[in-house]
Design brief:
Layout lengths: L11 E3 L2 H10 L8 H6 L4 H9 L5 H15 L8 H5 L3 E3 L10 H23 L14 H36 L5 H43 L1
Antiparallel strand pairs: 1-2
Helix pairs in contact: 6-8, 7-8
């Protein structure tokens, strides 16, 4: 699924029991501490259990705690380091919001995936199934027929564009009267472009239809 941009890039830390206990019982001075430390270090026993269950810290909380440990190690006999307290803690990374895919697009993707899987299955099992060992799609005549259809469609496109150019370049002059060569050339190009845009759409539909015809025929032969 497509992802949106991250609204809140804050990295959250779910502290381990060791880290939580240290903040609750060993941190004595919280002056200037960030909100995460002060809220977890609340003196009210009424709120301790609730806050411990859902306590989270931020990067600035760990930075403050690291500075606090550095100062404490200068006078303490037992030296405590942040990485020891941080062990077993969980890091919660920001996640982007997923945008639901268009249902029509999803249905078309599923349809194309099913057709592709069916073609792969047909190719894999054709050699062991005598009824499908020699499919019409494998014959040279069938392949030539498909190529001829596509060539005819392309030829129709080319002739239509040429006819549109001829109408703008010659036909308009016959209807109106003598026109400037540059103006006639411009009319021919405009007519050819308009017809080309329309023909490209119908040409794509035709070529796409031929591709689906092959898939549907192979599916039908498999069901038979």
């Amino acid at each position: 699924m497509p992802l949106e941009s991250i609204v809140d890039p804050t990295v959250m830390i779910k502290p381990s029991k060791k880290l939580t206990d240290f903040i609750l019982y060993d941190v004595k001075d919280t002056d200037g501490a960030p909100d995460g430390i002060t809220s977890l270090h609340s003196k009210s026993k009424k709120f301790k259990k609730k806050k411990i269950a859902n306590a989270t810290l931020k990067i600035e909380d760990l930075r403050w705690l690291n500075k606090y440990l550095k100062e404490k190690r200068k006078t303490a006999t037992k030296k405590i380091y942040l990485h020891e307290l941080f062990d077993d803690s969980d890091v919660i990374l920001p996640t982007p919001k997923e945008t639901p895919r268009n249902p029509e697009l999803e249905a078309r993707i599923q349809k194309l995936a099913a057709q592709q899987n069916n073609r792969e299955y047909q190719a894999m099992t054709k050699s062991i199934d005598s009824s499908r060992k020699f499919l019409p799609e494998d014959s040279v005549a069938y392949q030539m027929k498909q190529i001829n259809k596509q060539l005819i469609a392309v030829a129709q496109f080319i002739f239509s564009v040429i006819a549109g150019f001829a109408f703008g370049f010659i036909g308009v002059e016959l209807i109106v009267e003598d026109l400037d060569f540059g103006f006639r050339l411009l009319l021919g190009i405009i007519c050819a472009l308009i017809i080309a845009l329309a023909e490209i759409y119908f040409l794509a539909l035709k070529l796409n239809e031929y591709g689906f015809d092959v898939a549907s025929k192979s599916t039908k032969s498999h069901q038979d």
